[in-house]
Amino acid sequence: MLYYELGDVVTLKKGHPCGENKWEIVRKGADIKLKCLGCERMIWMGRMDFEKRVRKIKEGDKFVSIVHHHQPEE
After folding, report:
1. How crowded is residue 31: how many other Cβ atoms within 10 Å of its Cβ?
2. Apex CA 57: angle with CA 13 and CA 27, to 5°?
3. 3 state SS of 50
4. pLDDT value of position 63
5. Using the 8-state DSSP alphabet, how is residue 41 labeled?
6. Order of strands, sheet of 9-12, starting from the edge strand that comes earlier in the sequence
7. Angstrom distance (rounded) from CA 46 to CA 28
8. Phi and psi of 50, rounded to 5°?
9. What is the pLDDT along the chain (74 residues), one digit of tens a residue?
10. Where on the tree of life does the source sit, at the highest rank (predicted)?
């Protein structure tokens, strides 16, 4: 299972029709709610579908592959 939190910015396999490919995670649970950072449209996606489509996650000021992103040490 992948690690991500509310407010994380991710990129998906395919971009949004508005031309943007950056999404903010607004809600998580059985379904994931994402907000397009270009046009601010909200979409719902099943967790399994989201985990198949997500490609990169923003860490600081750069994007890293989701497979290299790990839970921060507490």
Report:
1. 12
2. 90
3. helix
4. 83
5. -
6. 42-46, 31-36, 22-27, 9-12, 54-59, 62-65
7. 10
8. -60, -45
9. 577 889 999 999 988 899 899 999 999 988 999 999 999 999 999 999 998 998 888 888 888 887 666 666 55
10. Bacteria
Mention every residue, 6+ apart, whose C-beta is less than 8 A from residue 58.
8, 9, 10, 22
Residue type present at position 24: E
Map tokens 């607004």 to a residue: 26
The pLDDT, as a whole number, for residue 71 is: 62
Comparing CA positions, the residue from 59, 45, 48, 55 lying closest to residue 15 is 55
Separation CA 72–CA 70 (nearest Å): 6
